[in-house]
C-alpha cells in the first residue's frame, strides 16, 4: 500500500514538472502582452486612433537602432505615420527573410536588395502596386525616372519602388604617394609605359619601398590601358566577360612581368586587402589600387604614420590610341516592396509618397537649411558636426530617391569629410571622359549566372595568382579559358546574351 | 639505476611543461593581441604596428562601445535570459529527473523514450518558427528560453546521479514521515549539489552562447542578445564608424573598435568562470559511473 502511494506521488511530481513547463509557456504570452509594441503582431489601429495605421518596416541590418534615431522621429513628425523598424540579421538575411515572409509576418514595407526582390517577386510573395502608385504616388513618379521604374517591374507589373545609387560616379582609382613622385621628380603616369617607368624609378631610387601593393587580380587603372573597361563588354556583337576580353592575356603577362621584376608587392598573391592597406598606411608602399572610400578611410592613419605623406590619384591609364576608361557605379541598390500579407498597402504607398515630396525629401535627407546644411547655386554643403548627428543615418531611411536633385544633395554627405570629397573629386572630375557603362548593370538575376559566377570568379583569381607565382604559364591562357567555359562559363555567357538580345 | 630513471623523469617533466606552456601561449597570445588592439589608437592599428601591447593607449573605443552602441541593452537581455532560463531549466530538469530515477515509477520507460526521441530528431527550422509564431513567442525573451528549457542529455546526467543515491537514505526520511517533495528538498538536493552546479553551468553557458534561436526568432532590435549584437556590430563596423563625428571616427580604427566590442562581450562570462571552474572540473565525470 505504501509503495502504491509512493508511485502515485512520483507520478504527481512528474506532473508538476510538466505543469511547470506549461507555466513557462503561459508566462511567455503574458510577457509578450506586457511588451506590446515590440511585437509585430500587435494591432496597429488601437494606438493611433485609427487615422493612420502604424506601419511595420523590415530592412537591411545596420549597427544602430533605427527606432531611436533622430531621422525616425522627424519622419514620424513629417508624415504622421508611426513606424516600427525591424532589421534582418547580418548573418544569412535571406533565410530569415524567406521564413518571415513565408509565414505571413505582418510587414508593410520590405526594403530589399535586388536579388531578394527578384526572389520574392518570383515566389509571388509581393503585391502589385502599379495602381496604388498611379493613385497616390504623384511625388514618387515625379522623383523617379522611367528607366528606373522599369527595374521595379516583373512581367510588366510594378512590384516595388526602385532606388538607384545616389549618383552615377567613378569609384575606382589608384592611390599614389604624391610626395614620393615629387621627391623623385616624377609626374603622374598617364600611359602604361609611363606607369612602368614610374614603378622602375621608385624601385631603383627607393629600394626599401614596394612600388605597388595590392591583392587579387583587379587593377582597373591598368585594365584601362588594354581597353578593358567594364565587367562585361560588347565584342563583335556579343557580350563577353572581362576574362574573355581579347587583351586580358596581355594584362596577365604585364602583371607577371611587374611581379618578376619586383615592381609589385612580393606578397601580392597572399595579401588580403587589409594587408595591402596596412603596407600603404605604414608607408612601405608607394601605390595601391582602390576606391575613393578607401582613400578617405586610410587618410588619417596614413597621415599619422607618414607625417609628410600626401596622397595623389592616378587616372585610368591610356591605351596606345589614347583612350581610357573605367566602369562607373550606376546600379539598383534597393527595391521597396509590399508583401502580400500587408493590409496597409495603400497607406504604405501614401507614406512613401509623402517622404518623396520635394520639401519633405530635402528635410529628411539633409535637415533644415541654415541649420544642418547650406545650399548655394545648387551646391549643397553640410554644417558640421550637427549634420552627422541629425542626418548621418538618413541613408537607411530612404524609400527611393529624387534622382535628379539627390545626385547633387548627396554630395553634401561626401563634403562632411574633406579628404573623402577630395578623393571623390579627383577621380570624378573627368567623369564624362572616363565613365563607361557596364551593359549588364541593370540585368535582373539569372539563375545560370548566380549559380556559376562566384566559382568562375574564384577560378580566374586562382589562375592569376598561379601565373604570378610561376606555377602556371601565361601561354596556358587559352587552355584556362576552355576550362573556364566547361566549368559553367559558356552557360553564363549564353544566358547573359539571351537576356541582352531581348533588351536591344 | 634509480637516479637515471629520475633524470629521465625530470626530462620528461621539463619537455612536458614546456609543451604545455607553448600550447597555453598559443591560446593566450591572440587574446592579448586583440586586447592590445582595443586600447590602441587608429594610426597604430591601421598601420599594423600592434603586437601584444597597446600603442597610443586610449579608451576611446571602449567609451564608444559603452555610450553609443546597444552593448548594455544586449547584455541586459542576455543576463535576463541566462538567469531566468537557467533557473527554470534546473527546476524542471530536477523535477523530471527525480521521479524518472525511481525504477518503480509507472510510465518511466515511455517518458524516457520521449526524451531520447527528442534528442535524436528535430522538427526543423521552419516548423519551429511557425510553432513559435503560433504560440505568440516570437520577439519575446521566451523564444530564447523555451527551446532550451530541458536538454535531454542534462536530464540523463541528473537522473543517473539520483539513481546513485542509496535508497536507504531516502527510506529513513520516509520513516520519519517526510513527503516525496520534502525528501527531494531536504535530503536529495543537498547531497546533489555537485550535479546541480554542473548542470547549472551547462545551462548557463548554453543560454549565454545561444545564437541560433535569437537569430531566427528575434527581429526586434531592442531584444537582440549579446551574441547577435556582437556579430552585427562587428559586421557593420565600417558603416557605423562612417556616420560618427570626426572626433570619434578618427580616434579609433575599425579593427580597434571590433576588438573593444569583443573584449567587452567576453569579460562578463570570463569573470564567472573562475568561481565555477571548481565544479566544472569535478562535475565533468558526474553520472559517468553508475554506483
Describe this structure in words.
The complex is a heterodimer of chains A (504) and B (291). Chain A contains 22 helices and 16 strands. Chain A has 504 residues and is of the alpha+beta class. Chain A has two domains: 45-168 and 331-433, Periplasmic binding protein-like II (D-Maltodextrin-Binding Protein, domain 2, 3-Layer(aba) Sandwich); 172-327 and 446-503, Periplasmic binding protein-like II (D-Maltodextrin-Binding Protein, domain 2). Chain A has a five-stranded mixed sheet with strand order 2-1-3-13-6. A three-stranded antiparallel sheet of chain A has the order 10-7-11. The longest helix of chain A has 34 residues, at 2-35. Chain A is globular, with a radius of gyration of 28 Å. The relative contact order of chain A is 0.14. With 291 residues, chain B is mostly helical. Chain B folds into two domains: 2-68 and 236-283, no CATH class; 71-221, MetI-like fold. Helix content of chain B is 74%, strand content 0%. At the A-B interface, helix 1, strand 2, helix 4, helix 13 and helix 14 of A face helix 2, helix 4, helix 6, helix 7 and helix 10 of B. Chain A: InterPro entries: Bact_solute-bd_prot1, SBP. Chain A: Keywords: Cell membrane, Lipoprotein, Membrane, Palmitate, Signal. Chain A: Residues 38-50 have a biased composition (Low complexity).
Amino acid at each position: 500500500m505504501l509503495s502504491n502511494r509512493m508511485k502515485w506521488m512520483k507520478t504527481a511530481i512528474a506532473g508538476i514538472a510538466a505543469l511547470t513547463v506549461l507555466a513557462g509557456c503561459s508566462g511567455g504570452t503574458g510577457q509578450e502582452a506586457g511588451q506590446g509594441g515590440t511585437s509585430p503582431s500587435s494591432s496597429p489601429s488601437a494606438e493611433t486612433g485609427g487615422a493612420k495605421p502604424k506601419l511595420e518596416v523590415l530592412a537591411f541590418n545596420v549597427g544602430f537602432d533605427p527606432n531611436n534615431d533622430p531621422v525616425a522621429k522627424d519622419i514620424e513628425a513629417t508624415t504622421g505615420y508611426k513606424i516600427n523598424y525591424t532589421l534582418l540579421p547580418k548573418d544569412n538575411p535571406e533565410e530569415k527573410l524567406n521564413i518571415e515572409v513565408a509565414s505571413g509576418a505582418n510587414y508593410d514595407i520590405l526594403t530589399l536588395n535586388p536579388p531578394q526582390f527578384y526572389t520574392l517577386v518570383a515566389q509571388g510573395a509581393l503585391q502589385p502596386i502599379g495602381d496604388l502608385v498611379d493613385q497616390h504616388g504623384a511625388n514618387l513618379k515625379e522623383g523617379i525616372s522611367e528607366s528606373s521604374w522599369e527595374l521595379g517591374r516583373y512581367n510588366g507589373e510594378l512590384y516595388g519602388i526602385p532606388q538607384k545609387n545616389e549618383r552615377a560616379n567613378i569609384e575606382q582609382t589608384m592611390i599614389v604617394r604624391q610626395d614620393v613622385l615629387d621627391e623623385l621628380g616624377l609626374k603622374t603616369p598617364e600611359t602604361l609605359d609611363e606607369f612602368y617607368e614610374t614603378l622602375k624609378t621608385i624601385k631603383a631610387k627607393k629600394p626599401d619601398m614596394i612600388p605597388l601593393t595590392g591583392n587579387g587580380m583587379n587593377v582597373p587603372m591598368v585594365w584601362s590601358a588594354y581597353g578593358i573597361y567594364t565587367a562585361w563588354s560588347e565584342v563583335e556583337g556579343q557580350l563577353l566577360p572581362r576574362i574573355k576580353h581579347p587583351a586580358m592575356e596581355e594584362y596577365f603577362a604585364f602583371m607577371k612581368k611587374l611581379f618578376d621584376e619586383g615592381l609589385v608587392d612580393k606578397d601580392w598573391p597572399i595579401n588580403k586587402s587589409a594587408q595591402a592597406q596596412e603596407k600603404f598606411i605604414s608607408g612601405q608602399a608607394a601605390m595601391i589600387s582602390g576606391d575613393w572610400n578607401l582613400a578617405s578611410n586610410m587618410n588619417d592613419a596614413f597621415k599619422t604614420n607618414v607625417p609628410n605623406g600626401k596622397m595623389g590619384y592616378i587616372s585610368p591609364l591610356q591605351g596606345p590610341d589614347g583612350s581610357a576608361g573605367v566602369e562607373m557605379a550606376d546600379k539598383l541598390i534597393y527595391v521597396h516592396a509590399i508583401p502580400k500579407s500587408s493590409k496597409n498597402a495603400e497607406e504604405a504607398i501614401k507614406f512613401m509618397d509623402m517622404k518623396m515630396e520635394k520639401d519633405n525629401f530635402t528635410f529628411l535627407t539633409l535637415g533644415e537649411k541654415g541649420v544642418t546644411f547650406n545650399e548655394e547655386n545648387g551646391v549643397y554643403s553640410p554644417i558640421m558636426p550637427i549634420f552627422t548627428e541629425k542626418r548621418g543615418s538618413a541613408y537607411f531611411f530612404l524609400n527611393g530617391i529624387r534622382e535628379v536633385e539627390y545626385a547633387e544633395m548627396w554630395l553634401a554627405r561626401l563634403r562632411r569629410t574633406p579628404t573623402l570629397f577630395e578623393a571623390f573629386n579627383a577621380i570624378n572630375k573627368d567623369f564624362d571622359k572616363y565613365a563607361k557603362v557596364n551593359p549588364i548593370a541593370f540585368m535582373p538575376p539569372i539563375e545560370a549566372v548566380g549559380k556559376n559566377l562566384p566559382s568562375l570568379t574564384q577560378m580566374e583569381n586562382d589562375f592569376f595568382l598561379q601565373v604570378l607565382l610561376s606555377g602556371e604559364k601565361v601561354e596556358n591562357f587559352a587552355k584556362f579559358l576552355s576550362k573556364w567555359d566547361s566549368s559553367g562559363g559558356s552557360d553564363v555567357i549564353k544566358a547573359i546574351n539571351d537576356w541582352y538580345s531581348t533588351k536591344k | 639505476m634509480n637516479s637515471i630513471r629520475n633524470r629521465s623523469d625530470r626530462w620528461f617533466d621539463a619537455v612536458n611543461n614546456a609543451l604545455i606552456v607553448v600550447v597555453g601561449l598559443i591560446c593566450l597570445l591572440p587574446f592579448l593581441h586583440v586586447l592590445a588592439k582595443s586600447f590602441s589608437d587608429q594610426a597604430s592599428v591601421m598601420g599594423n604596428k600592434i603586437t601584444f601591447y597597446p600603442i597610443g593607449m586610449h579608451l576611446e573605443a571602449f567609451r564608444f562601445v559603452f555610450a553609443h552602441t546597444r552593448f548594455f541593452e544586449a547584455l541586459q537581455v542576455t543576463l535576463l535570459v541566462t538567469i531566468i532560463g537557467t533557473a527554470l531549466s534546473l527546476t524542471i530538469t530536477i523535477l523530471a529527473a527525480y521521479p524518472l530515477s525511481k525504477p518503480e515509477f509507472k510510465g518511466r520507460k515511455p517518458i524516457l523514450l520521449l526524451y531520447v526521441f527528442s534528442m535524436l530528431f528535430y522538427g526543423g527550422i521552419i516548423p519551429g518558427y511557425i510553432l513559435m509564431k503560433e504560440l505568440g513567442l516570437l520577439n519575446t525573451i521566451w523564444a530564447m528560453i523555451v527551446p532550451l528549457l530541458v536538454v535531454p542529455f542534462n536530464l540523463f546526467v541528473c537522473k543517473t546521479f539520483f539513481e546513485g543515491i542509496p535508497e536507504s537514505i531516502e527510506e529513513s526520511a520516509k520513516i520519519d514521515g517526510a513527503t516525496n517533495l520534502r525528501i527531494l528538498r531536504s535530503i536529495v538536493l543537498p547531497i546533489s549539489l555537485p550535479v546541480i552546479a554542473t548542470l547549472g553551468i551547462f545551462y548557463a553557458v548554453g543560454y549565454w552562447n545561444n545564437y541560433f534561436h535569437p537569430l531566427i526568432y528575434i527581429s526586434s532590435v531592442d531584444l537582440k542578445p549579446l551574441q547577435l549584437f556582437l556579430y552585427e556590430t562587428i559586421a557593420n563596423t565600417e558603416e557605423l564608424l562612417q556616420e560618427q563625428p570626426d572626433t570619434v571616427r578618427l580616434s579609433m580604427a575599425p579593427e580597434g573598435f571590433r576588438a573593444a566590442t569583443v573584449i567587452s562581450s567576453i569579460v562578463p562570462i570570463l569573470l564567472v568562470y573562475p568561481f565555477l571552474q571548481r565544479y566544472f572540473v569535478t562535475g565533468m565525470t558526474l553520472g559517468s559511473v553508475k554506483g
